[in-house]
Amino acid sequence: MIYNIPGRTAKNIEPETIIRLAEIPNIIAVKESTGSMDQASHILSACDLAVLSGDDSLTLPLMALGGKGVVSVVGNIVPGDVKSLLNAFNAGDMKLAREWHFKLFALCRNLLGLATNPIPIKAAMQLLGRDNGEVRLPMTQLDSASMKVLEKTLRDYGLL
Q1: pLDDT of 55-71, one tens digit each?
Q2: Residues 37, 62 contacting (CB under 8 angstroms)
Q3: How far is CA 117 from CA 20, 73, 77, 120, in A?
Q4: Tens digit of each residue's pLDDT (9 = 90 or more) over 105-154
Q5: Is 31 a catalytic site residue?
Q6: What span, in angstroms and rounded, lies between the C-alpha atoms of 7 and 2?
Q7: Is-contact 40 65, C-beta < 8 A?
């Protein structure tokens, strides 16, 4: 799987390059984390790679274009909810898929916007009793103000 995340690498893998890479038999998917529906559309229209969302909040829009799913961050804490979104979409129930999208969107926006991943998801997992260790340098723990936002977000979602 190609992992295209310019936010981490400071370089976008252009659609033309991804389309060329799709010709290599053992490359079967791309985790598209650019946030660009134009880029995703370009890739989807030009090759047979499975395009997976690398941005939780764009999963439903990407699937509506032909994407095949998500490599999810919030799925670490609410895997059943992410699966429900995917199942509703795949069953053709757009009303239910949108409901799941909007429910998950608040969690994605409030949790993932606090700091660079994996800082907020690790903090969330620790708050939920699923300790997975400390973040490693150069990353640091969430500050107290962000922890309060995170706790409220998890409470509002019904997790705390």
Answers
A1: 999 999 999 999 999 99
A2: yes
A3: 29, 8, 14, 6
A4: 989 988 888 998 899 999 999 999 998 888 899 999 999 999 999 999 99
A5: yes
A6: 15
A7: yes
DSSP 27: -
DSSP conformational letter for 2: E
SS3 79: helix
Of the listed 11, 31, 68, 148, which one is catalytic? 31
Extract the tokens encoding 28.
């079967």
Is 152 catalytic? The answer is no
Query: What long-range pairs does 34-40 form, CB within 8 A, spacing at least 24?
Result: 34/4, 34/5, 34/6, 37/61, 37/62, 37/65, 39/12, 39/15, 40/65, 40/67
User: Angle at the Cα of 158 (from 152 to 160), degrees rounded to 5?
Assistant: 60
